Amino acid sequence: MDHIVIIGNGISGVTLARHVRKLSDKKITIISAESDYFFSRTALMYVYMGHMKFKHTQPYENWFWEKNRIDLVNGFVEKVETNAKKLLLKGGSSIAYDKLVIATGSKPNKLGWPGQDLKGVQGLYSKQDLEMLEKNAPNNKACNRAVIVGGGLIGIEMAEMLRSRDIPVTFLVREKSFWNGVLPSGESELVNEHILEHHIDLQLNTNLKKIIADGNGRAKAVVTDKGETIECNVVGLTAGVIPNIDFLKDSGIELGKGVKVNRFLETNVKDVYAIGDCAEQHEGIGSRRPVEAVWYTGRMMGEALAQTICGNAREYSPGHWFNSAKFLDIEYQTYGWVFSERNKKDTEQHFHWQHPKEKICITVAFDKNSHRFLGINTFGIRMRHEIFDQWLTENKSIDHVMIYLKDANFDPEFYNLYEDEIVAKYNADFHKNISPKKKSWKRIFSIA
Amino acid sequence: MDNFDKSMSLVGEPPKALNTGQKLAVLTGMTGMGILILQLFNLNLGNSVLWLSVAIVAIVAGVIWFSQAAYAHLHKGIKNDGVWFKSMSSRGILAWMAGIALTGFYIVLYFYPQYLGLLKDGDNTGLIALFDPLSKALSGRPASQWFVYGTLYTVAILAFGAKFLWKYRHNKYEQLRTISVMFFQTAFAFFIPEIMARLNGDLPYYDLKNIWPLNYYNFERYRINGFIDSGSVGITMLFFGIISIFVISPFLTYKYGKRWYCSWVCGCGGLAETAGDSFRQLSDKSKFAWKVERWVVHSVVVFVTLMTTAVIYSYLGNDTSKYWLTKTMFISGVAVILTAVFAWTMIYKREELEKDAKYGAIGYFTIIAVLIGMHFFSGSGNIFIFKAETLRSTYSFLIGSIFSGVIGTGFYPILGNRVWCRFGCPMAAILGFQQRMFSKFRITTNGGQCISCGNCSTYCEMGIDVRAYAQKGANIVRSSCVGCGICSAVCPRGVLKLENGPEKGRINSKEVLLGNDVDLMDLVNNT
Asked: Which of B157, B161, B164, B283 measures 20 to 30 Å from B182, CA to CA?
C-alpha cells in the first residue's frame, strides 16, 4: 500500500488528503509543525479581533482525522532524502514515503531592512505569528503605536486587527495609492479614503528605511525614506509572502522562487510533488502568476493532484480567475481579469461606476475592439460566481453583461440594487441604449 | 490553544471595557430594573403609574443609549469586535450571573408566582401590583404574573430590537425582519389579545400568531368551549387556528422556508433575535449536538401530537350531539394524516433521510399506530395508556415551562439564544421538516469563493456548521435553519445568500468547486 506523506496541513495538503482518501485506501500522513489540526489561516485575524476563538477556525472536528484514517504528525521536517525516500524530522526521527507532497505554504517576505529581525517586528501568516502579535500588541497600553509596512491584503488586515484594539496604526505603502498594482485607480482611491475613515495613518509613496532598536533589542521606532522617524512598539512586515522552502535547499528538488513543478504538479524528482503557495509553475497558466498564494488555488491543486496520485493523471488546469477580499468594511469581489492602469494592455478598456455617496463601485473590463467582456471588480456589491464564470466561458460581450447584470447580483434580499444606475452610466459613457432585463430565476438556475 | 486563550484574558486584556456612554447607559437601565426588583420586596412606592413608567422608560432608554454609545461612532458594518473577550458574551462570570438570575426568574414565574405578588384571594401586591394600572387600562382586569411577563417580554424585544437595528444598520434584510418581530410581538402578542379580552370577556386569551403545536393548549376543552361560546368571533378564531396549521403555514413555508415564522413572526424567535443576539455564537456546532437535536426535537413533536390527540379525544363524545366531531372520526382523521405524511416521506423522500432519521420515523410511526390501534380494541377512556390529563400536565410542565422557559431563555448566556427553538420547539421541527423536504428556500453558496474562515458557523445561532457546506460549494438546506441571515451578513467574502428559487438543484452536494478545471468538476461531481 502506497504511503502518501504530505508536508503541511494547510488547505492544499488537507484537500489533497481528503480527496486521496475518497479515491483510495492509501496510507496518508500529514506532517505539520504549525498546529495539531488543520485551521483556516484566513481566519486568524478574527481570533485577534475577538470574533472567533481559535477552535472556530478549524473546519473539521478533531475526530474527523482518525475516522478518515489520515495520520497527523506534529513535527518539523528538516531534510528530505529523495534517494532513500525518507524525511528527517527535528529531534531525530524519520518517516519513509512512497509519494511525497510538499505543501508548506509561504512565509512573510522580508526585504533586508536593517532591524527586520528585532523583537516586536513580525509578519502575519502563521498561528505562531498570531500568538506573537497577542504578546507584542495585547492592547494600546503595551503597544502605543504599530507601523505596518507594505500595502497589500495582509497589511490592511493587520491594520484592521490592531485598530480593533484601539491601537494607533501607521500604514506605510510604497505605491502612490493602495494596492494600485492590482486595482484600477478609482477603486484604489476608494480604499485609500476608507482606510483614512478608520483612523489609520496611511502614508502613501513611503518606504521603510530602517527599524531602530531600544537597549533590549526591541523595535522602538522606524525611519522612512522621507526622513521621518515614527516611534512604535510593533512593526508589521506585510510586503507579500514567499514560498516556505528553505528546508529543501540540498534535497535535489529543483527550486526557483518556489518548488518548480510541471502542469501535473510533479517536481523534477520522481514521486515528489508540490502544491499550494510553495509550488511554482515553470510558466504562469494564462494570466496567472507562476506562484499563486491564494486560498482557492491551493485547494484546486489539492483536488487535481489527488487524481494524479490515485492513477488518473490530470494537469492542474484552473478555470477563470476569481478572488475576493474585505477591506475593513468593504467587500471586494473579482471575476475574470481587470488589470490596473499600471499592468493593463492597450486593448483593455474599463467602464467604471461609483455610488455618489456610499463606498460602492464597479469596474468592468472589456476588449476595446471586440467588446468582449474580460472581467469585473465590485466593491460593496456581491456577484454570482456561476454567472460570471459562464459569461467568461461563452465570451460574452460587455453589452450582454449590462443587459443581464441583474441576474448576477448576489446581495442579500431587500438590499438596494444599482443595476439601473450602472447601466444608465454605461449608456451615457458609450452612447448606447441598453435597458437591463429583469432578474430571471430561470436563467440564474439553469446555470447554477 | 487553551493556554493561549488564558493569556488573552489575563495578560492580553484586549479592549473590552465599556466606554463612558455605555457605563451611564447601564446605570440608567439598571435603575429601571432596580425599581422592579424593589417592588419584589413589597415596598410600597406609592404611585404605581409613575413608578412603572419610570422603570420601563429607564430600561428602554438604557438599552437604546447603550446601543448608541456602542455603535453610533463606528462605521456601518459587522460589529463583532471583542465578542469572545467580553464576559457577558463568552460565558464569563457576568454570563453565569445573568443565566442564574434569568433561570431564577422563570422558576418563580412558573411555580411560585406568589413571590411576585400574586395572591389567591384579594388584591395583588408587590411587582404584580405595580402592573395593575396598565393591565386595567388595557383589558380592564388586574394584572397576573403572565401580564407582567408579557409586558417585560415586549419591552425586551422592543428595546433590544432597537439595539439590533443599530448594529445591523447596513443590512436591510436584518432590519426588516427585526421590525417585523417587533411589530408582531407588540401588536399580536401584547395589545390585541388584551383588547379583545376587554371587548369579549369570554374569549380565551389568543395570540393569533401562535400556532399549534407552539400553543399546545389551544385545543383544550375550556378553550374550545370558550371559542364556541363567544359566537362568530370565537368560531372565526378557532377556524383561523386550524387553517394556520393546515394551510397558511405550509404555504408560506413552501414559498419562503420556515424563516417566515421563526425569524419574522414568532415571539420566542423575536426574543432570541433581539435580547438574545449577544449569545448566538454560543450554540454548539458539533455533529454530536446535531444528533441530540434531531432526536430531542422530534421526540417533542411526537409527545405533543400524542398529548393533543389524547386531550381532544378525552372530551369528544361518541355521538354528534355536543361536538360535530366524534371520538372515532377524530382518531381516524389523526391516523390518516399521520399515515399520509409518513407514506409520502418514505416513498418520495427516503433518499434524503439519514439512516437514523429513517429508524426514528419508522419507530415513532409504529408507536403511534399501535397506540391508536389499541384504542379501537380496548374502548377504555385512557387513550395511549396514560390519562389525557396526565399527558397534558406532564407536557405543560416539562416542555411548556421547564424547556421553553427555564432552559430555553434562562440559559441564553450559557447555551446560546436558540436552545428552545433548536432542541425543543415542536413547531420549529414541523416547519423544519417541511423546509428540508418541500420548500423553495435555501442558502445559496457562491461558487468557489469560500475561504473556510468559519464566521458563518460561529455566528449560527442554530448550531449549523454552515462552513461545512459552503466550503464544499454546496447550498445549505437544513431543517433547523431559521433564516436569520446572519451567516450571510458576517461572511467576509460574499459567499452566502438566503433565497427562494426552484426546488430542482436546491440540494447540490459537490466535491470539486467552481473555479477548477471544468473536466475535473464534471468527472468528480457527476460520479
From this structure: B283
